[in-house]
TrEMBL record:
Protein name as catalogued: Acireductone dioxygenase
Superkingdom assignment: Eukaryota
Pathway(s): Amino-acid biosynthesis; L-methionine biosynthesis via salvage pathway; L-methionine from S-methyl-5-thio-alpha-D-ribose 1-phosphate: step 5/6
Organism in which the protein naturally occurs: Danaus chrysippus (African queen)
Role according to the record: Catalyzes 2 different reactions between oxygen and the acireductone 1,2-dihydroxy-3-keto-5-methylthiopentene (DHK-MTPene) depending upon the metal bound in the active site. Fe-containing acireductone dioxygenase (Fe-ARD) produces formate and 2-keto-4-methylthiobutyrate (KMTB), the alpha-ketoacid precursor of methionine in the methionine recycle pathway. Ni-containing acireductone dioxygenase (Ni-ARD) produces methylthiopropionate, carbon monoxide and formate, and does not lie on the methionine recycle pathway.
Length: 184
């Protein structure tokens, strides 16, 4: 089950939890209000037939999907990829991940540029908005398998910080200011 917390400012091993002292947890509601990150809990044993994931895909227009395995054995250019996932960056589209097995940390910046660490494991699906600065790391288990989704043809290109002049960054800051209210 997903948990999120504010990180300490210690630059030791990125795979450790990096809690503050005392720990400062962030609820899923607060995570959304502070960052726009959305969360879905999916049953990993029944998702192929229970319709929950299918509804999310349909509602949100996720037309592309594949799977990524991050481990020394399975990920080509492992060291290089792990390093680039952890460089602070943003994308012009949402980053959608549904964890099937293993675990890891997605770190996102809040409005005051503080890192919030989101610990994901099997059954956790997260949507990282376009334009938010973020990064990913494996934890000490060194393994994650996840589905990736995309609206249309996938673009995995990261724009490392600073990318403040990008339209998607400006859009994100605008939504953040408005508190992520949906305007239909
Ligand atoms: C759990 S997915 C691995 C990380 C990743 O795909 C990314 O950071 O883009
Ligand atoms: Fe990313």
């Amino acid at each position: 089950m997903v948990k999120a917390w504010y990180m300490d400012n210690d630059f030791s091993d990125q795979r450790l939890e990096h809690h503050r002292n005392p720990p400062e947890f962030v609820s899923l509601d607060d995570l959304y209000k502070k960052t726009g990150v959305e969360y879905f809990n999916i049953n990993i044993n029944t998702f192929a037939t229970d319709g929950v994931l299918d509804k999310i895909k349909k509602d949100r227009g996720y037309t592309y999907e594949d799977e990524i395995v991050c481990s020394k054995e399975c990920l080509p250019n492992y060291e290089e990829k792990i390093k680039s996932f952890f460089e602070e960056h943003l994308h012009t589209d949402e980053e959608i991940r549904f964890v099937l097995d293993g675990s890891g940390y997605f770190d996102v910046r809040d409005a005051s540029d503080q890192w919030i660490r989101i610990a994901v494991s099997a059954g956790d699906m997260i949507v990282i908005p376009s334009g938010i600065y973020h990064r990913f790391t494996l934890d000490t288990n060194n393994f994650i398998r996840a589905k990736r989704f995309f609206i249309g043809e996938p673009v995995w290109l990261p724009y490392n910080r600073p990318a403040d002049d990008m339209p998607c960054r400006k859009d994100y800051l605008h939504k953040l200011e408005k508190g992520f209210v949906e305007v239909n």
